[in-house]
Design brief:
This protein is α/β, with parallel strands linked by helices and about 450 residues long. The protein contains 19 helices and 10 strands. The mean pLDDT is about 95. Catalyzes the reversible isomerization of glucose-6-phosphate to fructose-6-phosphate.
């Protein structure tokens, strides 16, 4: 079986000779510290050897639960936000039909995502759509107290119970949460829902290979054993004893730190040429953004879907401030085949493409863009993925996780906390007069009064 491969040749040309190699000791030290548990945030290292420690029994338990939901539900709503949402959506959208919700063959339940915003229209339209439908809910929250998810779950639980009856609803509501703490755990214990535990030592953004991601992915009909198999193989390919040059995670971590430190590249744009990978970039943005953006430091993770965004962001990338670099996820072989037809009249002048696969044009767009952007001063990292399937997504996920752990340590931050996210929550609770926030409520209201 091939592995995903990393090509940094068009990025290192923007660095002085020997720069990447000079990061080797720091990268090695970071990886040792992860392995030995001596790095900052060392109580959140449960993801490091998670793929290779998953047991067949555990996979069976997840699959059995998914099979129950698949048998009982035409729609499964996955309620969660951030790390309790993005990984599952990334994999499901990458593997699913681009028009899944319109496809008549309903051998799989429709998977919907909620609990990731507080849009009243969104929630009203969701509950309206679910009226009269046989739906189930996977309520995912590590803390069990996240407002967006808890609020959505309250609505969905009520509706599910009203439509199915309280007893029948229990069979199709599953909680993935903390072992003991939080509102999601309390509701699950009281009602007797099936539950899965998010291990304490696995942070939300590193949790896609736990039931957080595996249960929704299995519900959608995808093979979670292949996903884990890919992750296990990448765990080995990026092991701490693999020589630096042969370890893709070590090289990626070194190059991005080099570009940031030595070449003033403060923004990394994750690029795909397959719209199905849009949420893969969203997942990656949280992984790297929450892990590295702190202490006044960190590369800003952005994303573009090409060629779509070449017609909106292409100008900026080609000629705007030279503070960016690109990392391209390139799928070597599409799963489907479509040839351009010949047209007698050739009014569009496209007969030169007749008989060619659509992907041939896409690949030339990718190569042409790479050359143009590199010429324009944008370093280019390329991750080549042999095929878009469960196995290679498993590889990609673990590759980004381990590279993130290494990169954050090289940067000199704790990659496993996210203290900054609390600031908006504190203000929101104060503004909503949440019990326990009386002093903050008073202070924020006085401040707003003054700012009027
Ligand atoms: O799983 P939870 O606890 O609901 O958290 C969801 C997300 O919210 C955050 O805690 C940020 O507030 C993320 O780190 C996390 O992935």
């Amino acid at each position: 079986m091939k592995n995903i491969t990393l090509d940094v040749s068009k990025a290192v040309q923007f660095l002085a000779e020997g720069t990447v190699k000079a990061y080797e000791p720091k990268v090695k030290a970071a990886q040792e510290a992860l392995e030995n548990g001596t790095c900052p945030g060392n109580d959140f290292l449960g993801w490091l050897h998670l793929p290779s420690s998953v047991t067949p029994e555990f996979m069976r338990e997840i699959q059995d639960c998914a099979d129950t939901l698949r048998a009982e539900c035409e729609v499964v709503v996955v309620a969660g936000i951030g790390g309790s949402y993005l990984g599952a959506r990334a994999v499901i959208e990458a593997l699913g039909n681009s028009f899944a919700w319109l496809v008549a063959d309903k051998s799989n339940p429709t998977i919907l995502f909620a609990g990731n915003n507080i849009g009243e229209d969104y929630l009203a339209e969701l509950t309206e759509y679910l009226k009269g439908k046989k739906f189930g809910v996977i309520n995912i929250s590590k803390s069990g107290t996240t407002t967006e998810t808890a609020l959505t779950f309250r609505l969905l639980k009520k509706q599910c119970e009203e439509q199915r009856g309280k007893e029948a609803a229990k069979k199709v509501i599953v909680a993935v949460t903390d072992a003991t703490k939080g509102a999601a755990r309390a509701a699950a214990d009281k009602e007797g829902y099936k539950t899965f535990v998010i291990p304490d030592n696995v942070g939300g953004r590193f949790s896609v290979l736990t039931p957080v991601g595996l249960l929704p992915i299995a519900c959608a009909g995808f093979d979670i054993t292949k996903l884990i198999a890919g992750a296990v193989d990448m765990e080995h390919a990026c092991g701490k004893d693999v020589p630096f040059e042969e370890n893709p995670a070590a090289v990626y971590a070194a190059v991005r730190n080099g570009l940031y430190d030595q070449a003033g590249k403060k923004i990394e744009i994750m690029v795909n040429y397959q719209p199905k990978l849009h949420y893969m970039s969203e997942w990656w943005k949280q992984l790297y953004g929450e892990s590295e953006g702190k202490d006044g430091k960190g590369i800003f993770p952005a994303s573009c879907d090409f060629t779509t965004d070449l017609h909106s962001m292409g100008q900026w990338i080609q000629q705007g401030e030279r503070s960016i670099y690109e990392t391209v996820i390139s799928i070597e072989k599409p799963n489907r085949e479509l040839l351009f037809p010949n047209d007698e009249e050739n009014l569009d002048g496209l007969n030169f493409l007749a008989g060619k696969r659509v992907d041939e044009v896409n690949k030339m767009a990718e190569l042409g863009t790479r050359l143009a952007h590199v010429d324009g001063g944008v370093p280019n990292i390329r991750i080549s993925v042999p095929e878009l399937n469960e196995y290679y997504l498993g590889q990609l996920i673990y590759f980004f996780e381990i590279a993130c752990g290494i990169s954050g340590n090289v940067l000199g931050v704790n990659p496993f906390n996210q203290p900054g996210v609390e600031a908006y929550k504190k203000n929101m609770f104060a503004l909503l007069d949440k019990p326990g926030y009386e002093a903050e409520s008073k202070a924020i209201k006085e401040r707003l009064e003054k700012e009027k």
